[in-house]
From TrEMBL:
Name used for this protein in its record: Protein angel homolog 2
Biased composition range(s): Polar residues: 126-143
InterPro entries: ANGEL2_N (IPR045816), CCR4/nocturin_mRNA_transcr (IPR050410), Endo/exonu/phosph_ase_sf (IPR036691), Endo/exonuclease/phosphatase (IPR005135)
Start and end residues of each stretch annotated as Disordered: 111-143
Taxonomic lineage: Eukaryota, Metazoa, Chordata, Craniata, Vertebrata
GO molecular function annotation: 3'-5'-RNA exonuclease activity; mRNA 3'-UTR binding
Example GO BP: 3'-UTR-mediated mRNA stabilization
Domain Endonuclease/exonuclease/phosphatase: 201-517
Gene3D superfamilies named in the record: Endonuclease/exonuclease/phosphatase
PANTHER family: CARBON CATABOLITE REPRESSOR PROTEIN 4, PROTEIN ANGEL HOMOLOG 2
Domain Protein angel homolog 2 N-terminal: 18-190
Length: 577
């Protein structure tokens, strides 16, 4: 290191004549900074450094080293100036590694205001998320160098810049429930009602591959906060603290799930089910539940990619679990938990609606009980759609007339949609095997003697329909579930929107927890016919925050929140009549 520094000397800094002689001789290509940002950049032009915290004289085009803050494992060469002025500093390797990390320049990043060419998001949705070898090697170097930073900050429990989120009680009963839980009671029964209380979290944990492929969305972040070795301990700590009975996770990277996430959650008492995205996408969805609260009846993955249908050429997936609560009640008691991450592309509302219909059809085939009604249902995920959009209204209201609807307006992600093409009728082809009521079809051809006649559609139950090939196409979508949203999406006092995700380009709500409400639930929403046995009562939820609140801690991810999404958390009571 010293040898290379002697070679550089001060050939490029003659203009900084006001600087101390020993600082001039460092050479322009060696920059140290130990205050605020705690970054060391070696052989890196000033323009490639993301940001430099702290204050320094306006005449200096780079941060000045301050001896009081220095800490390293090497000794200065005599050219650095008199050794005496530094001899009182603590030069220890341990101090250095715990308070800083290496920032190695990315050759594709020319300046802070320019995004890497290899990491620009393609809104067409056909982007390749593969990472160049050089970039992958660089990422590995960064992760190793920053591991000690995460460990040190976890050890000292730094909570600077923490987002304040409080628990909101939806009904008075939930306060009683909290008290009962503190006494070790997880269930209660009053009269003829059997009850079972449990919590559900939905959390997009931000796949490391997607983070690196879309680095332009995280320019506001200090780079050391973006390494997986820093992020995962924070994410795991959030999961531990919130202590949900059911976790619905999105953007779970397969190699991280296999090597770290699954084993970490199993050690916390969870059983994990995982569905990786199809094709070359390295992440997927996971549903994890505490074995002390539930047992698994069935696990049903849903792939939205269909090779024989051009419309369905995307690799998104869903996962549907049927769980048995561990308490004494009716033998048929079960809860259906679904998790998904729909396509991002704002201009492909046709794909989003079709993916949603496929998920709903799978739920409809899993959730029926012996009496023909549906068991209680919870649907979590990142739907890449905003509140009030046609897709959101379809989920809550159970119906959507999409005739004349522009393809770019389905999700409401863009204020001025670029997708102007009108949705086709029907949106998806017949060979998908899903009806406009979002259930699986059983096609039946007319008998010879009745050829040409339109037979009346028969519906033996809510899970499938017998559809005749000559059935007239309709622009009306329906589903059989009566769903409510855990969150209201706006603060009632101010009307300011709640936010579930925040990065350099946007701060909106795209993450949801929908549930089938019991008839007497305070959040009960009008929708499809009541076809549920009992239902779910929303007891409470972890409050969301505003965009302004998030930017007070520099948005997401930040020091303590290591995803660009916030975790959603709700408490439910299962009610059986």
């Amino acid at each position: 290191m010293v040898k290379s520094l002697e070679g550089n000397l001060c050939e490029e800094w003659p203009r900084h004549s006001m600087l101390p002689r020993h600082v001039q001789r460092l050479g322009r290509d060696w920059i140290t900074h130990w205050n605020g940002s705690q970054i060391l950049a070696l052989n890196s032009p000033v323009s490639s450094c993301m940001r430099w915290a702290g204050h320094y004289p306006p005449w200096a085009s780079f941060p000045l080293p301050i001896s009081a803050d220095f800490s390293a494992n090497w000794r200065f060469h005599p050219f650095f100036g008199p050794w005496r002025q530094f001899q009182n500093s603590n030069w220890h390797l341990d101090n250095y590694t715990q308070s800083c990390c290496f920032h190695l320049p990315n050759p594709s990043m020319k300046s802070e205001g320019e995004e890497p060419l290899t990491k620009k998001r393609k809104l067409s949705g056909q982007d390749d998320t593969s990472i160049p070898e050089q970039q992958t090697d660089l990422s590995n170097q960064k992760e190793v160098s920053c591991l000690s930073v995460a460990q040190n900050e976890e050890k000292h429990g730094s909570k600077k810049g923490t987002i304040k989120r409080h628990w909101e009680y939806i009904c008075q009963q939930s306060k009683t429930v909290k008290t009962a839980k503190n006494k070790g009671s997880d269930q209660s029964s009053t009269g003829s009602e059997a009850t079972f209380d449990f919590t559900v979290m939905s959390y997009n944990i931000l796949s490391q591959n997607l983070l690196e492929d879309n680095s332009h969305l995280y320019r506001h972040c200090r780079q050391r906060l973006l390494f997986w070795t820093y992020r995962f301990p924070n994410i795991l700590q959030e999961i531990k603290e919130l202590d949900a009975d059911v976790l619905c996770l999105q953007e779970v990277q397969e190699d991280h799930y296999r090597t770290e996430i699954k084993s970490s959650l199993e050690s916390l008492g969870y059983h994990c089910e995982y569905k990786m995205r199809t094709g070359r996408k390295p992440d997927g969805c996971a549903i994890c539940f505490k074995t002390s609260k539930f047992s698994l009846i069935s696990s049903n993955p849903v792939e939205f990619f269909r090779r024989d249908i051009p419309l369905l050429d995307r690799d998104n997936v869903g996962l549907v679990l049927l769980l048995q609560p561990r308490f004494h009640c009716k033998a048929s008691a079960a809860i259906c938990i679904a998790n998904t991450h729909l396509l991002y592309n704002p201009r492909r509302g046709d794909i989003k609606l079709t993916q949603l219909a496929m998920l709903l059809a799978e739920i409809a085939s899993v959730a029926p009980q012996k009496d023909g009604s549906f068991c209680p249902i919870i649907i979590c995920g990142d739907f890449n759609s905003v509140p009030g959009s046609p897709l959101y209204r379809f989920i809550k209201e159970g119906k959507l007339n999409y005739e004349g609807l522009a393809i770019g307006k389905v999700s409401g992600q863009e204020q001025f949609p670029r997708g102007q093409r009108i949705l086709s009728i029907p949106i998806w082809p017949k060979k998908l095997g899903i009806s406009q009521n979002c259930v699986y079809e059983i096609k039946q051809q007319p008998k010879e003697e009745n050829a040409g006649e339109k037979l009346e559609t028969a519906k033996p139950d809510n899970t499938q329909e017998i559809v005749i090939a000559s059935e007239k196409s309709s622009s009306k979508l329906r589903h059989h579930f009566k769903l409510s949203s855990v969150y209201s999406h706006y603060f009632p006092e101010t009307g300011i929107p709640e936010v579930t995700t925040c990065h350099s380009r946007s701060a909106v709500t795209v993450d949801y927890i929908f549930y089938s409400a019991a008839n007497d639930d305070t959040a009960d929403q009008p929708g499809a016919e009541d076809s549920f046995c009992g239902g779910l009562k929303l007891l409470g939820r972890l409050a969301l925050v505003t965009e302004k609140d998030l930017w007070t801690v520099n948005g997401l991810p930040n020091e303590n929140n290591s995803s660009d999404h916030l975790p959603l958390l709700a408490e439910f009571r299962l009610v059986e009549r």
